[in-house]
Amino acid sequence: MEALTQAASELFGNLGPEAVSVRDVAAKADVNHALVHRHFGTKENLLQAVLDEHARAFRAAMLKEEDFGATLVRLFDVATERPAFTMIVAQLLLGGDAPNAFVAQEGGLKVLADKVSKGKSKQDREQAMTVIAAAASLNLGWHLFAPFIIHALDYDGAPDKMETGIREMMRELATKIPGTTE
C-alpha cells in the first residue's frame, strides 16, 4: 500500500487530484488498477489516505519537540521532505474544494494551537493562533513559491542559505506567544 500512496501523492501533487485517475496511480506504482480499487475503493478514499499519511508526519513532528521554536522548524522541515502535501492542498483549494472537505478540524494546526495555548487567556490564545497562522503561511508560501521568490529577488546566493534564514524566522515567531520561550 505504501507504493500506492507514494505514487498517488506524487501524481496528486504534480498534476492535481482532478487530473489523476486510479489507472494513472496504478501505472506509476506498477500494479494493476484493481489493486487500488481493492485497497481504497475510490480515488477520493485514496486521496484521503494520502492526506492522512502526510498529516500523521506533521503531527509526529509536533509531538517530537517540546520547544515551540524547534517544533515550527521541524514542521518546515517536514514540508520540505514532503513537497507533494503543499501542492495537493494548493491544487484542492484552487480547484474550489472547501478546506473542511479535506482538513480535519482536529488536525495539526489546531493540535498545535491547543498545545501552546493551554491554560492561557483568550487574548493569549488568539495571539498563539495568529503566530501559528503566520508560521503556516510562511511555511506553505515558501514551499509553493520559493523558485518564484528567489527569481523575483534576483537572489544569486545559495537557496539553502535563504532556507536557513526562514528557519531562524520560525524560531523568532515562536517567541511572539506569551509565556513561550524559543
The secondary-structure class comes to mainly alpha
| Overall average pLDDT | 90
CATH topology: Tetracycline Repressor, domain 2
C-alpha-based Rg, rounded: 18 Å
Quaternary organization? single chain
Strand content: under 5%
Count of DSSP strands: 0
- The arrangement of helices and strands along the chain is HHHHHHHHH
Pfam families: TetR_N
Organism: Henriciella pelagia
DNA-binding region: 21-40
Protein name: HTH-type transcriptional repressor
Provide a short characterization of the protein structure.
With 182 residues, the protein is mainly α. Helices cover 74% and strands 0% of the residues.
Explain what this protein looks like in three dimensions.
The protein has 182 residues and is mainly α. The protein has a single domain, classed as Tetracycline Repressor, domain 2 (Orthogonal Bundle), CATH 1.10.357.10. It is 74% helix and 0% strand. The chain contains nine helices and no strands. It has helices at residues 2-15, 22-29, 33-40, 43-64, 68-81, 83-94, 108-117, 122-152, 159-174. The longest helix has 31 residues, at 122-152. It starts with a helix and ends in an 8-residue tail after the last helix. Keywords: DNA-binding.
